[in-house]
Amino acid sequence: MENETPKFVVVIGTSAGGFFALAELISQLKTEMDAAFFVVMHLSNHGVRGYLVNQMQEYTKLVCREVEEATEIKRGTIYFAQPNKHLVIKEKKVIHGSGPRENRWRPSIDVLFRSAAAAFDGHTIGIILTGMLDDGTAGMSAIKRCGGTSIVQDPNEAEYPDMPLSVMNETKVDYCVPLAQIGSVISDIILSKDVVNTLIPPDIIKEVSISEGGAASIGELQQIGESTVISCPDCGGVLFEMTNDRPTRYKCHTGHTYSLNNLLIKKNKNMEASLWVALRIVEERKYLLQQLADKNIKRGFHLTASDYSKRNEELEGHINNLKKILYFTQNEEEY
Is residue 75 within 8 Å of residue 6, measured between CB atoms? Predict the structure, then answer.
């Protein structure tokens, strides 16, 4: 039984507060479910390989395994992304994706969900648990467009409700239920859902291809997005606003992808880095002006020394303004 190709794939995404929520959900999964399960949880890119698999195996009788390259999908198995690798479902296999980060994450929940929708159309069940910001929202939209089913943990009980709320705000959710009920909902869907094969939208197929590791051409992006005046905070390329789907997303032709919130956060970080460089340069200029003022005083050139001292004082004001800006930049709420 467990070696058969599953009828359904269940993709699960979580982030902040997700360890115990994931453990609770996995403990509800039954061996008789005609499905394979895939998990992306936001962890450190330098995390210990196998850590999450080993921890979660204690909560289930299903086989937990970390994805190796081109792994055949088998029912009754829970597949986990490796650190710093996208988890991509392609046809009836699961592979690593080495494409750019989406929403500042690799692995990205959006990448997993979108690839599952492209490979298993209406036989895809997407689940979003506790987490901050909005990774998973665009992926869940792709699942819905391909005829799949969406489930979110009730935000009222989620430790961090941002991710479930984001999905609910941007898509029509099929089930919003407490964590303890999600397992039974999955069982009911697998037993009762009459699935019709869906024609996969070309833009979803194109985005899955990019996530596997290949960059898109500018011409390809023009087919699914509109060029903006905003530059990519990772590579400096032009960002295209995706017009094919909700929510608002931005993608450059090398594949870096951002939601509106995540783009703002990354721009803020880049701005902070630039401000620190500017502060360092101004401090160095101030020091050099003071050196020139001192040398001219020693030589008796008091008028010239006064000019250097005046410019030095002006820079002191600029330095204080930069420090104020940096203070407010560092104290902006971000994830």
Answer: yes
- Domain of 324, in residue numbers: 262-330
Instruction: Point out the domain boundary residue: 174, 192, 210.
Output: 192
Whether 25 and 149 map to the same domain: the answer is: yes
Do 14 and 150 belong to one domain?
yes
Supply the pTM of this predicted model. Answer: 0.86
- C-alpha 266/C-alpha 108 separation (Å) is 16
127 sits in which H/E element: strand 124-128
Question: Does position 205 have pLDDT exceeding 90, yes or no?
Answer: no
84 in any annotated domain = yes
Assign 74 to helix, strand or coil: coil
Report pLDDT digits (tens) over 286-317.
999 999 999 999 999 999 999 999 999 999 99
The tokens describing 175, both together, are: 């089930």
Question: Which residues, other chains included, contact 136 with Cβ-Cβ below 8 Å and sequence gap of 6+?
Answer: 13, 109, 110, 113, 126, 128, 163, 166, 167
Is 160 found in the same domain as 30?
yes
Residue 36 neighbours by CB under 8 Å, 6+ apart: 6, 8, 9, 10, 73, 74, 75, 76, 77, 78, 79
The residue type found at 313 is E
Supply angle C-alpha 25, 28, 34, rounded to 5: 105
Residue 228 resides in a domain = no
